[in-house]
Amino acid sequence: MAANYRYWCGECHYRTSWLTESQGADQQDRHYAERHPGIEPGGRVEVRRGSGGGLGCLALVGLLFLVLLLAATCQDSQSSGAPAPTATYRAL
Questions:
Q1: CA distances from 40 to 13, 30, 64 (A)
Q2: What pLDDT digit, counting tens, does each position of 66-86 carry?
Q3: CB–CB of 37/61 below 8 Å?
Q4: Up-side HSE of residue 89: CA atoms within 13 Å toward CB?
Q5: Cβ neighbours for 43, distance < 8 A, ≥ 6 positions apart
Q6: Which among 33, 39, 32 is positioned nearest to 7, based on CA atoms?
């Protein structure tokens, strides 16, 4: 299990190190028993974000840019090919 949880005390400025969820809860319970006897453990839980999660949007924008670039290149190459045939009219 990854150490992605940090527990903060609701009564003081104490916080656990990054631990597993169960380890952090146990450490917070011990802190409350020693420092705040008779008070129900409270505070907040901080969850660490995974690394590399910010590239998803950037990759999507890059892919969209490449698709638009490819579409513009294909359209440009089709219009710059052989000249369009001209119609000839004969007078009757």
A1: 16, 11, 52
A2: 989 888 888 766 665 666 667
A3: no
A4: 2
A5: 7, 8, 9, 10, 11, 28
A6: 32
Q: How many CA atoms lie within 13 A of 39 on its CB side?
A: 15
**How far apart are alpha carbons 11 and 18 in whole angstroms?**
19
Asked if 11 contacts 45 with a C-beta cutoff of 8 angstroms, the reply is no
In whole angstroms, give the CA distance from residue 75 to residue 72: 5
66 contact partners, CB below 8 Å, separation of at least 6: none
Model pTM? Answer: 0.53
Can you tell me the distance from the alpha carbon of 11 to that of 35, in angstroms, rounded to the nearest whole number?
9
Do residues 54 and 14 touch, judged by C-beta distance below 8 A? no
